[in-house]
Amino acid sequence: MIAALFFSRALLSVSMMLFVAVSFFHSDIKGHIRQFFSSPLLWGMSLLFMLTLLSGIWSEDKKEWLTILRIKLPLLALPLAFAGPFSFSKKQWEIIAFVFIGIVTAGTIWCMFNYVTDWRFINESYLRAKTLAVPLNNDHVRFSWLVSVTILLAGLLCWNKRKENKIIAIILIIIVCWLIIFLHILAARTGLFSFYIIALASGISLLLARAKPWQGIVVLILLIALPFAAYRVLPSFQNRVRYILYDYGYFKEMHYLPGGNDASRIISLRAGWNLLEQNPLTGTGAGDITTAIKKWDSEHYPGMRDTDKIYPSSEWLVYGLTAGWVGVLLFSIVVFIPCFIRRRNNLAWLLLNLTAMFGFLFDIGLEVQFGVFIYSFLILWWWKWLKPQKQITLTHD
Fold it and tell me: Binning pLDDT at 50, 70 and 90, where does residue 266 land?
């Protein structure tokens, strides 16, 4: 599944369904189902699929509704699979983590190969709201978040290996440094903000630690200096900042430019909010969201956006239009559930979920195949991997 994410949508679907099927190859099916319903994370994530399923009752465009259901199927299938009794050793979990880090890092190197072959043109394109080509069918939002998660994962493994295997720890530090540089070259806001959330929380955690608080001070100083250094050294980052400021100068005066990223995002948020106000009980239904948004656009901002599928640029509003305010409430509960589940390396677990929630505020990660898979797979993988070990109490007669 991890490899298919970078090479083939079809292979991703096939490998995921095979994984689900294999997870049921055991004799304790009742225990499997019991584990699913006794785990709020599992049935909660599946609830996001069920909301979309139920909205078909009041969705007029059944074809679009079925397409959305197919995209969101991992929200039901993967929780069912991870409820299974399969268990890996510490070494096996680490192998999966290292493979994941290796594939994502290879993806960034592929990006840089394309970048250096025509760096002048690519740098200039950043002034026109473009970015360099990335894997996942050029989905820079999802890929940049994936890179930030890989930084978190590599940092976690490095911390755990710092005494056990210093060579691996050094290699992981080099990878982390490279991925941080790459994120600033790519200059996609989702990945950058996620990285800075991770770095800020890590720095504060180290600062509050009793052992070596100076490490936290160093991290926080570097955190402040990093964007200024990137602006001076990296042309793509500098041009990205210049374009954002240019676009902001227009939309703060409510003078929206056709094709502008921020203009389209603000308009979509206004459309989603207005439609939710008009349909507070049921929303529009999942199948009719794009139709309703297009109609709203044509009435309020004709000619601003011309794409086949338009969603409000926030997953909260998407679920609001799917099932009204009930949808907003249930979506909020589901994405916050992991924050109340304790795992080993709890800070890393919380940061994984917080960066995902941040992405949902201004993006529609659960409306595209890659986004649905990445979110559900990462959350469930870490939930299973970082499960607290059972405490053994020794007693004497």
Answer: confident
- Contact between 360 and 315 under an 8 Å Cβ cutoff? The reply is yes
67-71, 122-126, 199-203, 261-265 — which is least confidently predicted? 261-265
> CA-CA-CA-CA torsion for 237, 240, 246, 251, nearest 10 degrees?
-130
Global confidence as pTM? 0.92
Q: Tokens 């100083």 correspond to what residue? A: 221
**How many angstroms separate the CA atoms of 71 and 243, rounded?**
33
Are the C-beta atoms of 377 and 77 separated by less than 8 Å?
no
CA–CA separation, 141 vs 123, rounded Å? Answer: 18
Per-residue pLDDT tens over the stretch 39-66: 999 999 999 999 999 999 999 999 999 9
Collapsing DSSP to helix, strand or coil, 364 comes out as coil
Are the beta carbons of 147 and 374 closer than 8 angstroms?
A: no
Give percent above pLDDT 90 in the chain.
67
Angstrom distance (rounded) from CA 167 to CA 157: 12
Residue type, 191: G
Closest by alpha carbon to 103, among 225, 7, 14? 7
3-state secondary structure 191-222: HHHHHHHHHHHHHHHHHHCCCCHHHHHHHHHH
Euclidean distance between CA atoms 153 and 179, whole angstroms: 12
C-alpha distance from residue 350 to each of 25, 206, 379 (Å): 32, 16, 10
User: Rounded CA gap, 301 and 294, in Å?
Assistant: 10
What distance in Å separates the CA atoms of residue 382 and residue 8, rounded to the nearest whole number? 24
pLDDT, position 162? 79
Q: How far apart are CA 163 and CA 160, in angstroms?
A: 8
| Radius of gyration of the chain, Cα coordinates, nearest whole angstrom | 22
